[in-house]
Amino acid sequence: MSGRGPVPRGRVLGAALAALLGLGGIVALTEALRHPVPGGAPRVPELSARDGDPRAETACDESLPREGLPRAAPGDDPAAAPVTVTSNELYDCPQAFDGMRVRYRGEVVGAVLRRDGGAWVQLNDDVYGGTLGPLPAHRDYRGGNAGVGVFVPATVADEITSVGGPQARGDVVEVVGAFNRVDAASAESSVIRAERGAVVVAGQPFIDPLLPERRPVAAVVLLLAAAMTVAERLARRRR
């Protein structure tokens, strides 16, 4: 039998506290690697009051008939000037724009799905597709991803060369077409059938700059991890 007695409770508590402090320090410093230090250069631009609240409530036209009732003016005149809209307006007040010619602009994200004579694209007009850039690059949460499905002519689909994702900005496309609360051909809800469109801003790879404060923080994390490993092995040898 071993002649060693039980380990003093104080030593056990001290070792556990040291381990928790070490792990807490590593977690805190790791988080510092993901975000700039307070007072440092901002990684994302400042947003205006409008951009800062992407889900601002949209006031709908109360004079429109209730759901399921015919509209007095469908608004589908092909000669009518298109109304500039946002995805928030289309989703909050779909009946107000149903059948109307609209002008809409957003970043191509996801994929270009070619179908008969054209292609389906998702055009996002949220702050990630515009001011802030891809969310994984900064983790500055300003609401959800907001966009509209658009069926574009083949000539417009041929212009698209960059699709947005975590590592790149997609082409920004502006379209003019009819908004359909429920599309008769595809049964999709809240989509635009574009009659024309064009790429107005070309996409590009998103380069995540290395923050200067990351190097010292990474060095401290490495030293802490190495120290904990050495301490654990020394304690194991003494047993």
Q: Determine the mean pLDDT.
A: 77
Q: Strand tally, please?
A: 8
Q: How much strand content do the residues show?
A: 15-25%
Cα(first) to Cα(last) distance is: 14 Å
The CATH class of the largest domain turns out to be Mainly Beta
Number of separate helices? 6
Number of domains: 2
List the strand order in the largest sheet. 2-3-4-7-6
- Give the helix proportion (percent range): 25-40%
For the largest beta-sheet, the strand count, sense and barrel status come to: 5 strands, mixed, barrel
CATH topology group of the largest domain: OB fold (Dihydrolipoamide Acetyltransferase, E2P)
**Radius of gyration, taken over Cα atoms and rounded to an integer in Å:** 28 Å
CATH superfamily of the largest domain: Nucleic acid-binding proteins
Structural class assignment: alpha+beta
By CATH, the architecture of the largest domain is named Beta Barrel
List the uncertain runs.
49-53
Q: Order of helices and strands, N to C? A: HHEHHEEEHEEEEH
Global geometry: elongated
Structure description:
The chain has 239 residues and is of the alpha+beta class. The chain folds into 2 domains: 10-36 and 211-238; 75-205, Nucleic acid-binding proteins (OB fold (Dihydrolipoamide Acetyltransferase, E2P)), CATH 2.40.50.140. Helices cover 30% and strands 25% of the residues. The longest helix is centred in the first third of the chain and has 26 residues, at 9-34.
Topology:
Elements: H1 9-34, H2 49-52, E1 83-84, H3 87-92, H4 94-97, E2 101-115, E3 118-124, E4 147-153, H5 154-159, E5 168-169, E6 172-182, E7 189-201, E8 204-205, H6 214-238
Parallel strand pairs: 1-2, 4-7
Antiparallel strand pairs: 2-3, 2-6, 3-4, 5-8, 6-7
Helix pairs in contact: 1-6
